[in-house]
Records
---
Amino acid sequence: MLSAMSFQKANMRYFRIFFLQLQHAIEARSLSVVWFLTSLTTPLLMLIFWSGATAAAGGRIFSWSYSNFATYYLFIALASSMLTAHIEEDVAFEDINKGNLSQYILKPFPYYTSKFLLELPWRLFQGSLAISGIVIVALFFKNLVSVTSSPIILLLAIVIAILAFILSFTFKMILGLLAFWFTEISGVMNVNEIIFSIASGTLIPLEFFPNNLRTLFEILPFSYMIYYPIIAFLGKLNTTSLLQVILMQLLWIFIFSLVYKFTWAKGRKTFTAVGL
Amino acid sequence: MSAITVNHLNKTYKSYRKDPGFFGSVRSLVKRKYENIPAVKDISFTIESGELVGFIGPNGAGKTTTLKCLSGLLFPTSGEISVLGFKPFERKNEFLKQISLVMGQKNQLWWDLPPMETFLLNKEIYQIPKNHFKKTLDELISILEVEDIINIQVRKLSLGQRMKCELIAALLHSPKILFLDEPTIGLDVVMQKKLRGFVREYNKKFNATVILTSHYMEDVRQLCDRIIVIDHGSILFDGKFDELVKKHTQQKIISVIFEKEVLREKLLKLGIIKDFDLPKVVLLVKRENANSVAEKLLKDFSVLDMNIEEPDIEDVIRNVFSKS
Ligand SMILES: Nc1ncnc2c1ncn2[C@@H]1O[C@H](COP(=O)(O)OP(=O)(O)OP(=O)(O)O)[C@@H](O)[C@H]1O
Ligand SMILES: [Mg+2]
């Protein structure tokens, strides 16, 4: 009883911190629509490409019709704006390079959680923009948007989406922490963007890759951040495969959390709190 | 138990040297060249709870580095630090809830929101009980006279107003130990004085331990019972302010304003002439001779005005450093 109460109290604390940070995010950077629009460009370009390709191939490529592609990239836009964390630059440039990290180190609150509560409003905001976009598209082109109708699969897909965000977030946190050692971190980030856009299915659906590459992508964590959440919602996976996806996600989250702990502990020893 | 114990603390910064250009970057990735900058060298001291200690020393002496080590920001290269029985670098919550580091240059206030929002955030982060929060906040607000500004966007506040709010944000959780790094930097004389008064009061009222660094010797002289002089990473002096003055100045300053012309040669045997700008002359004399020289001056010359002073603190400090 007592522990339930203190648990609730602790939750209220996170909730209030989240709202204060949300308020700050709105004031400071004005949660902007521009960022959302940039996340639309890749899916749009790919769609234009496939429209030409499917026409040239006589309507279908690997059993994918043009409207299948449209649905896929619609959801890619949603997934990348909602599930992909963009905390790495903040961590690397503002916190480590400019020394803002000092403020977090001095506070009796975990850095990881602080950043998580800071990132969440952005994903919720851009995610809701993307969802309204999809709803509008669905009103005009009914057959383009067809989510699974099974409640169990939908529930599992939601779990997968949440885990995808945690996975992406933890990965980006680690990426940002590399700034403890590398002064020129942008190069690393750019390389990551390229690998990510291929291995996550953002550019091309993973089914189109040769088998050995596909196996590799199924092992790597990136597909569990974008590709699997999407096809889970589209109803392309049965319950067993969904559970397998969740298992893989949990495994990667576990690995990343160990790597995060390690990089944080090691990196903090090299931190010199510049700018103070 | 002492509030702070530092034993043979060393902190050496490793800064990577990168050769210019693309190949330079690649090479430095493979083979790291670094430069070692020893910022703090084998320092030891103990501070009892309730003490108000001043750190002074020239630029680059290692003051900020020491405070960063004490507050857990930096990993000591070697040596031990114990603050309230904790190792600062470990960042235990019970430790962090009892300390605060305030820096003149860097701030924790949210730039785009009123200070009140940062106060509320700190309330949650430090888990300050509602009643306690309200009481402390009201108290701090009235002492620092910031009633009117806590709801104005921080970016619109003046430097002094911001500093006051920084202090409030840093003190809401009633820290037992307060590290102040150049808290009066950029403040006008009136504000400096107010801030000093406030620090003293906080120290007395809560029996809080305070370490303060400053470039303004006045800060240190007026506030601190004890000072630690540090230069090139080493402690040169640790003790009472008066002791420092006594130990490092065998001289006093006599400034005289004469009624008539005097010959420089006649004054030479009385002491060192520091300034000869008739009618005003400044003499440096041995501490023990000060009174007899003064008598002599009054007897042999026609003097309009005369003052015997302790040397400028800045001079004292310079004296300490020049001997090291
Ligand atoms: N982040 C850093 N990386 C490398 N060297 C540093 C770093 N911070 C400080 N130093 C060096 O360490 C030495 C001590 O610096 P520190 O900031 O502790 O001096 P300080 O006594 O606070 O000086 P000031 O009065 O100018 O604030 C200086 O030589 C400085 O150049
Ligand atoms: Mg300094």
---
Amino acid sequence: MRVATQIKPDLLIIGLGMATMKLLDEMVELNAHKRFNVQVLSAESEAGYNRILLSHVLAGQQSLAQITTHDQAWFDQHGISVHFSQKVAQIDTQKTKVITKSDAVFQYDKLVLATGSQAVRLPVKGANEQNLLTFRDVQDVQRLLTIPPQNPAPVVVVGGGLLGLEAAYGLVKQGHQVTVLHRSDRILSQQLDNEAGRMLQNQLERLGITFRLNSQLAAIQTEQNVNGVMLDDGTHLDAKALVMAVGIQPNIELAQRSGLLCKQGVLVDQQMQTSQADILALGECVEFDGHTYGLVAPIYRQAKVIAQNLLKDGSRVFANQISSTQLKVSGIHVVSFGSPVPSDSTAQTLVYQDKKQGVYRKVVLVSGRVHSAVLLGQIQDAQWLFNLYLQQTIISAHQRQSLVLGQAYYERNVA
Amino acid sequence: MKPPLPGLVLKRLNNQTTRTTCPYCGVGCGIEVDASNTNLRMKGDAQHPANWGKLCVKGSAVGETLGMEGRLLQPIVNGEAVDTDTAVAAVADGLNRVLAQYGSDAIGFYVSGQLLTEDYYVANKLIKGFIGTANIDTNSRLCMASAVAGYKRAFGSDTVPCSYEDLNQADLLILVGSNAAWTHPILYQQMAQAKRDFPHKKVVVIDPRRTATCDFADLHLAITPGSDALLFNGLLAYLANQHALDQDFIVQHTQGFAEALASAQQSAGDLNKLAQACGICLDDLTRLCSWVKNTPKMLTFYSQGVNQSSSGVDKSNAIINLHLATGRIGKIGAGPFSITGQPNAMGGREVGGLANQLAAHMDFNQPESIERVARFWQAQNMAQQNGLKAVDLFEAVDNGQIKAIWIMHTNPVVSMPDADFVRQALEKCPLVIVSDNMADTDTTRVADIVLPAAGWGEKDGTVTNSDRTISRQRAFLQAPGLVQADWWWITQVAQKMGFKTAFNYQSPYDIFKEHVALSAFENDGVFSRRDFNLSGWLNLSAQQYDDLTPTAWPITAQNPQRNARMFSDAAFFTPNQKANFIAIQPKLPLEMPSENYPFVLNTGRYRDQWHTMTRTAKADRLLQHRREPLLSLHPLDCYSDALQPGGQIKAGDIVKVSSRLGETLMRVEFDDGLQPGQVFAPIHWTSVYASNARIDRLIPAVVDPISGQPESKHAVVNIELWAVNHHAWFLSSDPNWFPSAYQNAYWIKVPQQHTTLWFLAGQHTLNLTDFSAEFDVQSSSVECISYNDNAMQVGRYAWLKDGQLQAILCFAPRLDDLPASDWVASLFNQTELTPAQRLAMMAGRDAGIEDVGNMICSCFQVGENTLRKAIKQGAYSLVELGKVTCAGTNCGSCIPELKQLLAERI
Ligand SMILES: Cc1cc2nc3c(=O)[nH]c(=O)nc-3n(C[C@H](O)[C@H](O)[C@H](O)COP(=O)(O)OP(=O)(O)OC[C@H]3O[C@@H](n4cnc5c(N)ncnc54)[C@H](O)[C@@H]3O)c2cc1C
Ligand code: SF4
């Protein structure tokens, strides 16, 4: 299918997710897209949308149109071709071409893999494609929106992480009873310490979400539809639907099948190069230096690296760095970065707490530098703290007093 | 049966402006009170010759101290509240029983320079004429007994020979042992103004410590403590050498000159040696010498620093000698001017309310005087000899000689030297009667009978200030509860004791008339010739008494109006009318520093506090200048080997200050105005306001052998670091909260407008429940906001109830890690806090609000940081600083500190 007149190299991108859109934006910004014949193959049928905002769509706060960022017009405007509902089935690295499920073939000079990840589905008894709902893409959201609200039985969300909580919140907004099952003793166990976990749980309970901590799903009871779940301790809970939000796993089958080196994710080096010279990868599908990704911030940095390297070749590199996370539940503000319960014995914690107002601010210092932080309720200083972390600023004994109280106090302190 | 606390009730007055006199210091400023409503606005009385309309910060805040909080409202007998009749009977019976069983000398009165002249008069009459003993002494003993004795030795009478006007007229002002800028602010300002107007005037300050007063001095002589008499001897010897004495005056009007000069020459004849002995440089000394030599209008202004010494009388006579030898007395702008500390110390002297006085400037050393007074009073049991002076009085209480003591308006458990001893003595005494207007003082705690006395604004009478000016104190408030004036209690008790007719007064006017009559009684120059003479007022009507305008005595037919200059005729009140020179052998303080007690402790007042704070602590702005009693130390002394255990001391540390008598805990500040080896502590803090800062418990009861005045300005002490586990402050809206856990540690109580602030330090690990116990933290109406830095052991906790701030605690091992409390305190009267404020509380300041720093100007609440900023921005002079910040433009008492800040710029 190669057009003979073509002089520009073919840049083929698999997947139209957050990573790809960022990469395209970066290339447009640098005018790099003009040097290639860029084509995007998307397994999804919708125009490019902001996946993060699916939470708002589920909560009824935004529509699909509102979260769409890269529609056909955008692609036309920049002279980039996009092919929807084209799931790639195979990469022929020898012949530098890909074949889609519908047998379309695309030639490439450079290939970018951005297939993202998918929800982990626990292999419990009674689980199957139909009765396990997930929360990943537009189709998932559409399914979630069809759960019958008249049925008084609760929707059970498995997993009290960011995704699970946002799903639970959206479902409550849709008028459902929601019970969240969580394996550990506090929700957002990756992001919060016990105290903050408890405070957040209180606030979410006030919104109508029920929690069962320290419990795991053992089995799903179904007739036609889900009608209940069994917990590991034998408890039975009524349920009309079940949403799995226990984590994600990188989409690597395509890469594996095509002979790229993979572990958890598709292995890449610091230039986002896979084991194949002309194949790059980024986003949630990759593994770099033992890490996989679940937030956009590092992925955006990867996109920058690739865009610049496509322009100049090779000088930009990617490095790991912790990210700050926040929960998108309206009226509730949580920001966290770094490990909330540091294992380092020299770690020192500063805590400000105003329970009644739902405010909790904690900063952990290691060797006089910000190591991690949890902010609940008042988060206006999160960015500033995160920057102190990134810059590894040394906090003086005097400054430390106002650190957790925020920038307004801190800077005056210095003056 | 506690009656509810009434608020202030105004007296019904025809005239809504009441002219009265400030209750604080011996300057005796006139105050105009706008009593048309209970806001009670005060301003300086523009007609009053002491202040011509000005007031210092204490005086302007006096209205704020009149609240009913803590007032004693009913008599209490053996712990039971009773009515007035029962109380009067209990006192009278108690005194009669002691009188019958043990005799007159088993009774003592310990009264105060806070009493009005009329109160004083009847107290003195009762004990000396009817109970039959002169065991009455006053707390004025602690402040000016040496000055009295000095005058009497020299002039034959207790005559202050100067007036405030002389302060303007003098060309050379020598201030000795006086931090007038803080203790007598209005006089200080008057002197400073005079110097500004006439820059040729010279001002010399003689004080071991560089105080705020040195600010306007041309010369500060930081003499070795106790070397003042030596210095004045030296001046006398020098002038004699220079033939600069007034020989005519010496010959015609004095006696004893040769002996005095001989002692002076022998002890201080050599300027070099003198400079060395006084610890000053020769240049400074010769400057002083030449100014003294060349300036006829020389006035020596002295107070506690001279008086509170084991040789205080000698020191004042050394000063007086110099004035006599130069004839600089009885003349405009010249004289030895002793300034009293208390509002009516002079009135006390006039009625004779001291153990070594009889009455109306008569003494026990003349039998005819005793007979005269007995006749005048128709006394039933006339005392025949001097009674026990303050220190001896309490010793007699301790050894059981005195069985009943009546203490009026004073707090000896705090203010007496060796105050712990006084407390123990009183605890043993079978009958302790205390008249006070506050319910809980260190002294009411040891009383058997407590009588509620009228306070300032509720009572009527007269007071005499430091320049002999008699002014009216007038009532504009109804006395609350069962409160009565002191004269009323005394005369009721006297009548009940059986002295009906002698004490049948209806009003202060009746008493004043008798006081006038006694001053005039046989005082015609024939029977006797006495300085204190009010005969010009013999026919004063009740109305005239009410309308009395400030008038200086003597008031006689020859000079019915103020102001007769005393001694302008150089006729003194000795038998031959010649003044006495006293030969002075200068003595150093009795106790000198030693290995065990290497530091010399000096004591004194803070600018905005008064006595034992029973009153000033009620006006929170008066506590802003200094909220804690601080031990001032020379910066070099923080390294001194003498400090045990070897550790270096930092500002803000708590130290244990100990003498051989006891110990106190105080926070340290550095003051390079002190000399190394000398430390300074304020006298004000009592056990109501501090766990252990009663400085008088360190002071040995060493007294001047003549005046009996204690050497309060001098003790030798040791200083050790008191290592703390934590420093803390706690603000509570509950006035009754008490830091029980800190009983044996460090606490300072600072009453504030909406809260009470506690400064705390402990050696124990802080226990949060000591503070949170009263809050039901489980209750949904109670909430807690906290900040914790566990690694540094820093914590801050605020407790709110129904959204309103109740208490806040901040603690840290280092003082520097405590935030400021002022801004937080201002949140206590808000019904709801904004989220920003809730956060800001933990920082101790609003990010939007400046931390103004140490409060410098209490009137306009201008802090150090604000001032520094203004200076930075170009306010380089006092005037500009005042324009920008208002600081120093009202009472002016912060001007020395402002100047210091201005000086630091350069
Ligand atoms: C509901 C929700 C809320 C989130 N909120 C946040 C947040 O607040 N903050 C944050 O940082 N992150 C958030 N995330 C995570 C964030 O969305 C992901 O990190 C990000 O989308 C990953 O980007 P990606 O491009 O790697 O993967 P994806 O966005 O998942 O894109 C991968 C795309 O590749 C397609 N694809 C896969 N295989 C093939 C194939 N073989 N052929 C063609 N196409 C293929 C997929 O269909 C998909 O469209 C959220 C995620 C979800 C689901
Ligand atoms: S100077 Fe003394 S008398 Fe005058 S207002 Fe101040 S305290 Fe009162």
---
Amino acid sequence: MTTTAPTISRTEVEEFLYREARLADEGRYDEWEALWTDDALYWVPSGDTVDPHKQISVIYDHRSRIALRVAQLKTGKRHAQDPRSNVAHLLSNIEVLGEDGAGTHTTATFIAIESRSRGLTTWAGRVEHTLVRRDERILMSRKVVRLVNADQPLPTLAFLI
Amino acid sequence: MTAPALDREAYRRLIEDDRVHGSLYTDPAVFDDELTRIWYRTWVYVGHESEIPQPGDYVVKSIGPQSIIMSRDRQGAVHLLLNRCSHRGNQICEAARGNTGALRCHYHGWTFGTDGALLGYPFRQGYGPDTPKSALGLGRVPRMGSYQGFVFGSFAHAGPSLLEHLGAAREAIDRLVRLSPLGRVELTAGWLHHEVRANWKMLVENETDGYHPQFVHSSIFEVGESHVAEVYSERSAATARDLGGGHTEHDLRAHFRRMDRPLAWFGTTEDRLPDYCRAMREAYGAEKAREILVEGSPHIMVFPNLFIAEIQIFVIQPLAVDRTVQHVTPLQLAGAPDMNRRLLHQASGSVGPAGFLLADDSEMYERNQRGVVAREPEWLILRRGLNRERVDADGHLAGAATDETTQRGIWRHIRAMLTEEVPA
Ligand code: FES
Ligand SMILES: [Fe+2]
């Protein structure tokens, strides 16, 4: 296995993750949405989610629902994001776990500090991506955000985490 | 230090028929009064029997800030126990749920049955014969009642029965369970816990507020498909109703009868859910099944904390005068797996901290809380629909879908409870 060069390099992984976080933080919704493949899944499990088809998740968006989420944000009437939260994502502990037919699997830890009238909220956890190369571009087909406090009461989470 | 309680006269002044004072949402003394005169007195919804199907099952629930263990003992009986060791007060259950032969306190090792009885304590020699185990069980919510699997508890030792408390809300719960071909709901699809910096009454009042959806939810109505905008418009045939006892509902049946299409209330059609529709016809007969599927699910706020919101169940938990947790789970219907998948999918989009609907509702609760601290004007106006309010055939006050008949009904009951004019 050591002879096969990874389809996506570590540098490319890092660049993608940082860019994805920055586009979300800056509310560049169209550019953020363009990072997803057509068969994408954006998933934030709750403390109760064992199987997302059996228990409710905080977010369980297939591609069409990602589009709906972005479209709602872009109406300018998504009150929970109007004004937009100021958010700074920090990514660390990035690992490339491996690669299979689905793509390159990565994991990282994150902290996202959110500021709005409510005050500062600290969001933290582990984020897992599945990345694929399509026509020279790197896209994500899966992003799972495992919040450290997924089992606790959460404040409103209307920005792109 | 608890703030001094307000006297009855104060509440008569602060709660008028068509306006309420802003301090009712912000004054910690009012919150303390509400705990003692409402939350620790009336029937409060705790959990559903389907959450603890097996002997030994337990879930940790709440009555306001009080942590409550709802358990099923070896014989199958349900108990509401306080999550506090009878020895020196440790919280017993840390996990949100489990199955066990005995609940153990990890401080000094006392163990309790899932019926709350003290089973034993380590190093027995330290206790003489004058320490009877039978008197040292876990604390218990004095009264417990169950209706259609919905378990309620009351800290009042005496008072109206659960059925008396539910009153006209009972019929709405019946309408909910008949959506299952087996006549049972199952709250087994997990919970989201959404914390807001707002007073609990803002949530209760919003649950049957038909005036806000067009404005608060306009973003999702603009980009998604939803029948909700239509239901809460001036054209709607729906009714806002004060059922008494603080219970309020939006009766949407007239609206959906006018549409006369099965499952329109759920934004879908029969051909998408063939198994469910077949099971319903087999259970109720074609005619009755059609009626049930046309009329849809109830939208009712059972005072003070159970909101049956058509396709999901919310439970409101006050923690402080400006802190509330809203727990929510998708409705699941016994004997309807295809329907349940859709119910779960739809709820995942709509509710909870990131929900297309609830994130904006919660934003409003918090803005409302920040607004009512203003010194001027001091009052919130609840006059909408007074000009067209009527008494319906069942003797309930009824208004148009967007009217504040519901908020007035909620406050009338809160006033009666805070002035202690009604039994719990
Ligand atoms: S406090 Fe529970 S055993 Fe001592
Ligand atoms: Fe709403």
---
Amino acid sequence: MNAFLHQLASGAALGGVYAIMALALVMIYQATQLVNFAQGEMAMFSTYFAWKLTDLGWPYWRAFAVTVVVSFLGGVLIERVVVRPFAKAPVLASVIVFIGLSLIFNALAGWLYGYSVTDFPTPFDGPPWFGQRAMSAHESGSILVSLAVLMLVYAFFRFTPLGLAMRAAAQNPTSSRLVGIRVGWMLAIGWGLAAAIGAIAGMMAAPIVYLDPNMMAGVLLYAFAGAVLGGIDNPFGAAFGGFAVGVTENLMGAYVVGSEVKLSVALAIIVGVLVWRPSGLFGRRLVARV
Amino acid sequence: MSGAILEVRGLNAFYGPIQALFGLDFAVEEGGATALLGANGAGKTTTLRALSGLIRRQGDIRLGGKPIAGLSTEAIARLGVAHVPDGRGTFTELTVEENLRLGAYVRSDRRGVRRDFERVFGYFPRLAERRRQQAGTLSGGEQQMLAISRALLMRPALLMLDEPSFGLAPMVVAEIFRILAAINRDEGVSMLIVEQNASLALDLADRAVLIETGRAAMSGPSQTRGADDAVRRSYLGY
Ligand SMILES: Nc1ncnc2c1ncn2[C@@H]1O[C@H](COP(=O)(O)OP(=O)(O)OP(=O)(O)O)[C@@H](O)[C@H]1O
Ligand SMILES: [Mg+2]
């Protein structure tokens, strides 16, 4: 029983990481109808940046905060410099840009930090928070951080004028411009937020999956599976999907298929959902008059 | 200074390489209303798009004397040009209230915004009843009311309307035009109004411009016999 709870808890911890990565994917998808395949490698690069800061002796939370801010700015910059010029190009051109970006970040990380697998610190060490030892302190902390990110993002989009303007710009760019919203900047800020969320995902994942330039490849795939499962046009469906995929993956890995093939579970989920329900569990059935 | 809020001279506009407007001249008086008339495909929508900077354009466009022909759509909106586009431009997935808040997006005078909410709800009580409803589920008439209200929340120096009567029942059209007249006469909001229904538009407007294939065929005060005759001949078909 305890072993089962333990598997459930580890699944939920990684599931939280998938959930916020899925949220980052959805944010860019909603504005551009494109899946940013470079999201994982951008997050990995941010995580290395944080590692470098802690390696220099910075306290964890200061390194965390600075990494989030720098990642935000980096995301804005990437959108302005690399993505923007292809805004009107065919979809395939953007896909190639994303693949190029992920190769560049992967190579850059390897070149700067090497390919060896490294430990990454967690601020949540020490004894488990809950008596049963089913869940390590890092797992508990990581779940809390993921939930906090989800809530902050929700509050931002729901309650702030900037969040409203970003939703408007994603839905109807022309009408947005006609009320004075700088649509181009909204997209850049979306990229910044996605990069910042990805950085948090990377920093929460790294103590579990360890730090190496390929650490986020699997995470991105699971996040994508979660997004497809929940509905790629619904942020909170996608986040739910992320958690569900994390738990499923872990239980399957432990009890059903073994951890070697559990990555294929993610692919099976993607294909299965696309066949059975293309809009995902919570994909929006648009209520609109025509 | 002249008494014109909008002055347009030699306006050309283009869709890609194709020229759609050829040297258009007209004006909207401060506090006045100019009707932009013409047959289907004459270039009325194109004129509004050119003024808002949604398409490539050349020529001299002045808003309150200030040249705006080189500005972006966002910048023109921030100067107080509120454009209610054809098709109404509803943010269909947002609520009625969120649509209205977007109209006030660039304003920082909270109290004034709250007063303007009251004001548009006074004109269109139906929007107040539906403020939490998803805007895409509103009827066509309600969406037109929402589009006009969203524009009013911008506190516009110039309100540009593209066929506000399009696809609506006569009673709804009458209600909307009664309110537009009130907004123009009582509040002094200047308007540039595109309309298929020429007699409605000429009732509201103090000036009219008739466009034929991208050129101004006639322009002048809307109440003269000449205007009516020219409109009828070239456009109403009798
Ligand atoms: N997006 C576009 N791309 C290319 N040409 C266009 C485009 N929109 C309009 N045109 C052309 O520009 C000309 C003017 O069209 P416009 O839509 O301005 O007419 P309109 O006067 O608004 O007509 P209606 O009364 O039917 O709305 C037409 O010849 C039309 O075919
Ligand atoms: Mg038109």
